[in-house]
Amino acid sequence: MTQSACVNWPGPLAGVRVIDFTRVLAGPAASLALADLGAEVFKIEPPGTGDETRTFPPMRDGESHYYLAVNRGKKSIVVDLKTPEGLELVKDLAARCDILVENYRPGVMDRLGLGYETMRAINPRLIYCSISGYGQTGPLKDRPSFDIVLQAMSGALSMNGEPGGLPTKLGIPLGDLVGGINGPIGILAALYERERTGLGRHIDVSLMDGLLGMLGYIAQLAFFTGHDPARPGSQHPNLVPYGIFPASDGSIVVACLTPGFWGRICASIGRPELTGDARYDTLEKRRDARAEVNAIVSDFTSRHTVDELLAIFTAHEVPHAPILGVTEALTQPQAVAREMVVETRHQTLGTIPIVNRPIRFTDAPQPVPEAPPVLGQHSEAILSEVLGLSPERIAALRAAKIIA
């Protein structure tokens, strides 16, 4: 059967099992990526409220928007890890899994009896991914961290905001979400390595390391100049024109990344003679004449509506974009064509919209993701189908409040 002929193909990680001890955002974002790729993710939640984000408002019929956002396609099992029986259950489950993901502070999993050395002894093939604010080593490893703290510690916060003003937190919680990027990269690399060695590996993902790595050319600029780059606002430190420009009824983004685009911008604003103007004919000259160049572009854009500018810049193939709100972004034609919002069936909420998987495979479509689970939705099924426990044993565990 060809890939294009597959029906309900779960994804390239079909058959891979993940035991998921993550909560809040950084860890769940990592296990979400694995679920999106077809892995079977068993989310271990404590009795009572489960993952803390299940209580984060706003709520709808008892379900949190926050939890729904990062737990699609997972299976929830409620186990009391503070009991010996609960601990043995998750160890038995880990013995049947390929990957373990956790995002507690360093040392917590060891204190629970679920540290890497313990789990490796149970399952030498287990790939164990630890995601934490500062990593498993270093003077800050035991310090609590949140997204804004990590943005501040990594230098990312210092680069965001308007020149002369206070730094501004990034709107997207990138300090946490970087764990959802680097965690799966390390896991997939270790999964590939295991094909050769037969052994798992411990992966140490630091969220601060991730943000430092994302500084990219900003870090290199600091290395070259010996000082911190100035806060550029929506502009680029070296490329001009690049940023937000006024329209008569709003604003628009225009970006000139390469010399070739400068000529297109000049033509689009009715100033083709500027292409060869000796004052602006190199990247360095335009950077040094930033105020003049921006004033020229702004003078043109401010006399046109956003819709008029979209038509003009599209005709001249100038990189540009309207500034969309979140709702408009999710419903724009490109997002609709890519099916980035789909409907799925939630156990208590009924049919709900969710953001779709961001990675697609040509000629091998995956089905719509399953809805995020309600608390303990899959406890019985996992214990029965994966661990092979009898209905009587499951009933006894539930009566003892070890599972829920």
Any overview of this molecule?
There is one protein chain. This protein has helices at residues 26-36, 65-69, 84-95, 108-112, 116-122, 147-154, 174-197, 207-214, 217-225, 259-268, 283-288, 290-301, 306-315, 326-331, 333-337, 379-385, 391-399; strands at residues 17-21, 40-45, 59-60, 63-64, 75-78, 99-102, 127-132, 202-206, 242-247, 250-255, 320-322, 341-346, 350-355. The chain is 38% helix and 15% strand. The strands form 4 sheets. The chain has a 6-stranded parallel sheet with strand order 5-2-1-6-7-8, with helices on both faces. It has a 3-stranded antiparallel sheet with strand order 9-10-11, with helices on one face. A two-stranded antiparallel ribbon has the order 3-4. β9 and β10 (250-255) form a beta hairpin. The protein has 2 domains: 3-214 and 355-399, Rossmann fold, CATH 3.40.50.10540; 242-324, formyl-coa transferase, domain 3 (2-Layer Sandwich), CATH 3.30.1540.10. By secondary structure, it is of the alpha/beta class. The protein is elongated and about 85 Å long.
Oligomer: single chain
CATH topology of the largest domain: Rossmann fold
How is the largest sheet built, in terms of strand order? 5-2-1-6-7-8
Distance between the termini: 41 Å
- What count of helical segments does DSSP give? 17
Find the CATH superfamily of the largest domain: Crotonobetainyl-coa:carnitine coa-transferase, domain 1
Strand % is 15-25%
Outline type? elongated
- Low-confidence runs: 1-5
Q: Specify Rg, calculated over alpha carbons.
A: 25 Å
Write the element-wise H/E pattern from the N-terminal end onward: EHEEEHEHEHHEHHEHHEEHHHHEHHEEHH
CATH classification class of the largest domain: Alpha Beta
Helices and strands: which structural class? alpha/beta
Q: Structurally, how many domains make up the residues?
A: 2
Main sheet record: 6 strands, parallel
Tell me what the CATH architecture of the largest domain is. Answer: 3-Layer(aba) Sandwich
Q: Helicity level, as a percent range?
A: 25-40%
Average pLDDT confidence is 94
In total, the number of strands is 13
Protein name: CoA transferase
InterPro entries: CoA-transferase_III_domain, CoA-Trfase_fam_III, CoA-Trfase_III_dom3_sf, CoA-Trfase_III_dom_1_sf
GO molecular function: transferase activity
Keywords: Transferase
